[in-house]
């Protein structure tokens, strides 16, 4: 009798542990972010599905320390008009931002928007030559093509970090370094925590 009771309690305890363990495993399943891509018709804005897959594979490698993966959603759409392939005005960026694709590929980015230091809810226009730009708090980035797919991936991974709410970090070899030549795979635990929360949240 006593043995049966002990065995029963052990079985119940083991079952509870397994349920809790499986729940924890489910909770810890790494997020996979699906991205749609829009390209232009000009040679330096075109991109194939296979090229996007290679870029996202490398992007996943750069985000490996945070456990976040990326994959293409649907086929590449040629929906970026020529008039928006060179971005020099705020109105152009707003028009392109209306495109629902997560990644928009253009030929040149001559301006970007950054948070206004005097008004966190507003943005200021900053001229320059950019490899990528995002500003609206949505899962939406604008990028140019680089010389290699690995460089493309570094730009995409960095800009995606901004969509997760990560600011620039003035540290070499950091994924959120301000300049492309300094970008590397390093992400802090706090950056990973913020990014994971954003990656699991419904896309805006």
What's a quick, concise take on this entry?
The chain is of the alpha/beta class and 204 residues long. Helices cover 37% and strands 21% of the residues.
Q: How many β strands by DSSP?
A: 9
Average pLDDT score: 86
Query: What is the subunit organization of this protein?
Result: single chain
Give the SSE string. Answer: HEEHEEHEEEEEHH
Which regions have little confidence, pLDDT < 50, spanning 5+ residues?
1-26
Helical content, roughly? 25-40%
- Sheet-strand content, in percent, reads 15-25%
Strands across the major sheet, in which order? 2-5-9-8
- Which structural class best describes the helix and strand composition? alpha/beta
Q: What is the count of helical runs?
A: 5
Question: Largest sheet, described in full?
Answer: 4 strands, mixed
Q: For the CA atoms, what is the radius of gyration? A: 21 Å
Instruction: Please give the alpha-carbon distance between the first and last residues.
Output: 60 Å
């Amino acid at each position: 009798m006593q043995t049966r009771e002990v065995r029963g309690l052990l079985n119940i305890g083991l079952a509870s542990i397994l349920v809790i363990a499986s729940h924890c495993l489910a909770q810890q399943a790494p997020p996979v972010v699906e991205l749609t891509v829009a390209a232009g018709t000009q040679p330096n804005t075109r991109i194939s599905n296979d090229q996007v897959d290679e870029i996202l594979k490398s992007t996943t490698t750069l985000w490996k320390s945070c456990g976040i993966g990326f994959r293409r959603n649907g086929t590449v759409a040629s929906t970026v008009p020529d008039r928006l392939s060179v971005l020099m005005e705020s109105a152009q960026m707003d028009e392109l931002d209306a495109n629902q694709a997560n990644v928009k590929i253009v030929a040149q980015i001559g301006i970007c928007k950054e948070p206004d230091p005097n008004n966190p809810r507003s943005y200021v226009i900053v001229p320059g030559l950019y490899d990528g730009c995002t500003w609206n708090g949505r899962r939406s980035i604008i990028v140019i093509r680089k010389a290699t797919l690995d460089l493309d991936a570094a730009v995409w991974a960095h800009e995606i970090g901004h969509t997760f709410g990560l600011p620039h970090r003035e540290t070499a070899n950091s994924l959120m370094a301000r300049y492309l030549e300094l970008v590397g795979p390093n992400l802090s635990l706090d950056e990973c925590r913020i990014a994971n929360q954003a990656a699991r949240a419904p896309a805006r």
